[in-house]
Amino acid sequence: MADETIILVPGLLSDGVVWRAVDLALGGRGVVADLSTRDDLTRMAEDLLAANPGPLAVAGHSMGARVAMEMARLAPDRIRRLALLDTGIHPLRDGETEKREAITRFAHEHGMQALAERWLPPMVAERNQADAELMGTLTAMVLRMDADLHARQIRALTRRPDASAYLHRINCPALLVVGREDAWSPVAQHQEMARLLPHARLEIVDGAGHFAPVERPDAVARLVAPFLLGQD
User: Fold this and answer.
1) Residue 169: how many CB atoms within 10 A of its CB?
2) Of 27, 123, 162, 183, which is most buried, counting CB atoms within 10 Å of its CB?
3) Is the pTM here over 0.85, yes or no?
């Protein structure tokens, strides 16, 4: 609706590139969140709520979707629609902190180019890993970040709230979107989320992995933009 601000929340090591097609379909109305300075997901959500008064329609990708869920938890009366893409809801798993600390050290020791080469390929569908333009776009995005920012965001993820404990209380319309080949946040995870959310719709995007909004931008935009605008 016209009175709602549309917030687009990118994920780990991501920026507005992830939302380019969606924002184009929105007519440029989207406000892309900056998650570069905080190391706590709840603080990120609080910052976005404070900076964008009034009713909101929020879309989040990956880590950004966890921030979007926190926004809905903190201000349920203000979040009118919630789109969650390629994400999860579970608290920290055994051994996860150590694995994430290892990748943080890797970025500091070897640099962001090496991190991109290690991290990005498993994040896209296997068929898309040979797409030089796609991988170049994602690599350039990672290289706009630095190892300290990466460490802050990893720290936020290792301290993340247990969204599975409150998802059933989110009563606004929710759209779940996931790449069919997302190995990091698989389809089954989103099916579980759809069962927990009272008013959810699940859409699966073929030919995409974890970076579905970049791998299949037009397909994702056709789903997300009308939903955020209240037109679906």
Assistant:
1) 12
2) 123
3) yes
